[in-house]
Amino acid sequence: MSRSNWKRIVVKVGSALIAPNRQGCSSHYLLSIAQFIVRCRAQGIQVVLVSSGSVAAGAHIFPEQSKKDIAVKKAMAAAGQTEMMATWDKLFDFPSAQILLTHADLRDRERYVSIRDTTFSLLEHGVLPIINENDTVTTDKLKVGDNDNLSAMVAACADADALIICSDVDGLYDKNPHKHDDAKLLSWVDNINADIYAMAGGAAEDGVGTGGMKTKIEAAEKAVSHGIDTFIINGFTELSFNLLLDGKNPGTHFQAHEKPMKENIHWMTHTSNAQGEVVINEDFTDSLDDNVDALTSKEIIDVKGEFSVGDTILVRREDGTKLAKAKSNYSSCLLNFIANQDNQEFASEFEEKTGPIISEQHIAVLENK
Ligand SMILES: Nc1ncnc2c1ncn2[C@@H]1O[C@H](COP(=O)(O)OP(=O)(O)O)[C@@H](O)[C@H]1O
Ligand SMILES: N[C@@H](CCC(=O)OP(=O)(O)O)C(=O)O
């Protein structure tokens, strides 16, 4: 999509830009980002901000403490979050709103829709949503874990046209530029494959960031499959933002897919978590693409985990290959019951009355099948 057609964008700001010298928040780098947001809004582009930096901003309140201690890290996040919000708020003459999320919120369809509605409502009223992970309440099971992936989930949730990831490097290089002097910047990526992932390293050991380039590529993969053009740019320099506004590419541009996934299929593939698994017969594999309604308990070899009607499940082949994610119309309990019926007639009649196990509008067939 051309820059002049952008209606809504998500801007993700990394920790190094918020608290560059670990002495609390600094508006030094945020000024040009804020100006960019103001200029976008003046052009009628709605902006959602995903801001990292609560841990980095709060670290100075806990001197001598290591963020490796999870409780201390959460305390840093809780204290740093207010400082970070206050710093952003000072830079705008319009209201902003804080939204703190976990993966548990985004993978729950009702909460996801609620987040979406609230975001749209804020944008319609001219409020700038500022989103971060709710680090204080997260556990390994509940968290997204990095704000790159979070920003992509938010971009999909908000139907954004572009995701702009502001980092501390110019974009994706063919190898880590902090370790290799001859690293070359990739300005354009139209196919995110294993070679692209192989170029990406993690965050610097002694740095404030989380995930490094790997999570940015994961984010780009999520976003482009929803038709969202994604840029990784250097947020330290004002030039990046001026170039973006001039329709140029200041960093790495990951091209949006021309045929994006439907919203519910994208959510199922990239945001929701499978609550359980259904292992199916090898012979049915091909029918998943175009005739999933025909999947019956006869094709089911095993049902794993506990899930309720409406939960997302993973469909696997016996050899372990992941075939699809889908919304189950049956609970695990019921599915186990009919799949283990000796009386096939009873199972068939029951399924006929109850309807398909998976409906064709609620299946995301996985590409690497
Ligand atoms: N191929 C690569 N290209 C660019 N940066 C890379 C690459 N591999 C690893 N990195 C690291 O990723 C860092 C950016 O990620 P991160 O520290 O998580 O920042 P942020 O806070 O912006 O999310 C860079 O500073 C660099 O150290
Ligand atoms: N939620 C964390 C941010 C985690 C994170 O992904 O940081 P970064 O790699 O700097 O975007 C915080 O506010 O400190």
UniProtKB/TrEMBL annotation:
GO terms for biological process: L-proline biosynthetic process. Keywords: Amino-acid biosynthesis, ATP-binding, Cytoplasm, Kinase, Nucleotide-binding, Proline biosynthesis, Transferase. Its EC number is 2.7.2.11. InterPro entries: AceGlu_kinase-like_sf, Asp/Glu/Uridylate_kinase, G5K_ProB, Glu/AcGlu_kinase, Glu_5kinase, Glu_5kinase/COase_Synthase, Glutamate_5-kinase_CS, PUA. It is found in: Cytoplasm. PROSITE patterns: GLUTAMATE_5_KINASE, PUA. The keyword Transferase applies. Substrate binds at S52, D135, N147. GO terms for molecular function: ATP binding; glutamate 5-kinase activity; RNA binding. CDD domains: AAK_G5K_ProB. One of its GO terms (cellular component) is cytosol. The keyword rRNA-binding does not apply. Pathway: Amino-acid biosynthesis; L-proline biosynthesis; L-glutamate 5-semialdehyde from L-glutamate: step 1/2. It holds the Pfam family PUA. ATP binds at K12, S167, D168, T210, G211, G212, M213, K214, T215, K216. It is an enzyme of class 2 (transferase). Residues 7-234 form the Aspartate/glutamate/uridylate kinase domain. It catalyses: L-glutamate + ATP = L-glutamyl 5-phosphate + ADP. Belongs to the glutamate 5-kinase family. Catalyzes the transfer of a phosphate group to glutamate to form L-glutamate 5-phosphate. This is Glutamate 5-kinase. It comes from Marisediminitalea aggregata.
